[in-house]
Amino acid sequence: MNPTVQELVAALTLEEKAGLCSGADFWHTKAVARLGIPAIKVSDGPHGLRTQREGSTDPNDSIEAVCFPAGCAAAASFDPALTRRMGAALGREARANGVQILLVGERDKIEQCAKEHNLPLDGIEILEAQGMIPVEADPTTLLKEYADSSMAVGMQALKDGKGDAFVSAGSTGALVVGASLIVKRPKGVRRTAIPTIIPSEKGCFMLIDSGANAECNSISLWHSA
Q1: CB-CB contact of 104 with 159 (8 Å)
Q2: Which three-class secondary structure state does DSSP give residue 207?
Q3: How does DSSP classify residue 3?
Q4: Residue 205 forms beta bridges with which residues?
Q5: 89 close to 81: Cβ distance less than 8 angstroms
Q6: How far, CA to CA in Å, does 219 sit from each of 215, 216, 223?
Q7: From CA 191, how far away is CA 213, in angstroms rounded?
């Protein structure tokens, strides 16, 4: 019988727990061989996959990847089929580059969608959740009326250490609520902010905050930096 997450955490020494937080390198967690915990490759990037080119020593030497529309833009299309296609494309890129994926949602619908689009789910874990929070719903309803939705369950999983990042094409407002009240902000940071990558003639720059707060004072901007 495979041990549960709780059993594995209880078996970790203090040094091993600290090691999992620090990472083996820029992109991988530390493995704990004695407990069968492998090193996990992670990725960052607000609108797509960003990971270091194999063999490079520069963390900013990223592989070429698709820059997808921001979650708020995808949600504003009111096209569920489009967001599913985006998710599938992002999943293919992530899997091709060794990033492990945890999908949150209704298992039957996920498996049916994968079958319809001929998408293999090998190596992808599914975390069961019921429905989703509509983009037109009050974002704060994520905590009560939609506490069993894919976003709420996924945010809780992130808080519980079952992932390193959360990607959603759903309600941006609900995403901010979940990041602030479920996952929690870093200590000392007063407000959640939304970063948006914008291309320019000299590359890309990050606009922050780009919508989470109606008013941004100097302290909030300093925290975001």
Answers
A1: no
A2: strand
A3: P
A4: 198
A5: no
A6: 11, 8, 6
A7: 8
Structure tokens at 86: 């985006």
Residue 64 has pLDDT above 90, yes or no: no
**C-beta of residue 130 within 8 angstroms of C-beta of residue 148:** yes
Structure tokens at 167: 């990607």
Instruction: State the amino acid at position 68 in one-letter form.
Output: F
Tokens of 165: 């990042």
- The mean pLDDT of 80-89, rounded to a whole number, is 81
CA distance 151 to 143: 10
CB 68 within 8 A of CB 47: yes
User: Cβ-count burial of 165 within 10 angstroms (0-12 exposed, 13-18 middle, 19+ buried)?
Assistant: exposed
Query: For residue 34, which phi and psi values (nearest 5 degrees)?
Result: -65, -20
Q: What is the pLDDT of residue 185?
A: 81
Tokens found for residue 145: 């009326």
If one compares 15 and 96, the residue with the highest pLDDT of the two is 15
